Amino acid sequence: MIPEEFILEVKQKTNIYTIVAVYVDLKKVGKNWQGLCPFHKEKTPSFHVNEEKQVFKCFGCGKGGGVIDFIEEQERKTFPQAIYSLALRAGLINEKTSPFFNIDSSLAESVTKGTVYVLLLEGNKYYIGFTNDVERRVKQHFDGEGAVWTKKNKPIRLLKAFENASLEFEDEMTEEYMRKFGWKNVRGGNFVFTEMDYKETPENIHQRKRDGAYLLQLAGDKYYVGFSTNIEDDITKQFNGRGCEWTKLHRPIKVLKVVKSLNRQAQMNMTLIAMKDLGWENVRGYRWLDPFIDKPPELDID
Prior knowledge:
The chain is an alpha+beta fold and 302 residues long. Helices cover 33% and strands 24% of the residues.
């Protein structure tokens, strides 16, 4: 059974907007994002995403819920598969969390391995995707039911398909095609937003100095260790009361440390060190986010 603590961490590390925007062309309307519902045919947008509350709702067909509900419905996954898929995207699958999914021996393989495909689109544009059912997914693109990018740029043909591939390979292929054909003409992997600018491209992201882990001092001698590809924005959320539960309970006071890294391992290491030095009861970070966790067993290992 998947621990509630882990499900909570997956939700906290996932922004529903970034997930939904892969499938729906969202426009900002007031506090919400709005677009055409992906679950039924409509001409007038009735599908809304509230980024602050991390929920979606269609006032046309009535479907709604959180990011897990959206993945279950949109990608036709079971609850455990949806959790695993989101955890994988958030970088939360490791030797400690993989056993949570042993209830289904085929789960890990079905999510971590699949087919990475490349579509040629009109206007010399390209789309790179990942799927466990390439025939069905490619058909969705050609039927106008795929990603936003392939809805705006009509598919011409399937160029390549790499079987038994990983999500990481999808990102690598996307970056390769961006370098070859220009980032304005390619979408896929972690770079699926139709409205992108240079600061969001692989070339710029890999050069950024703001990617990595950070340590916050909180009120009441509490501490929080975070990780983000945009540390400045993530820290701002924590200080504005829009971060994790721990920083909502204990108000952030100041930033103590920032470590540049593209590897989430930096967050785990910083969290364990802070727990040893400052007391595990006073520190939260990495996968230890629940305010009421037990002492992490990793602290007993020298």
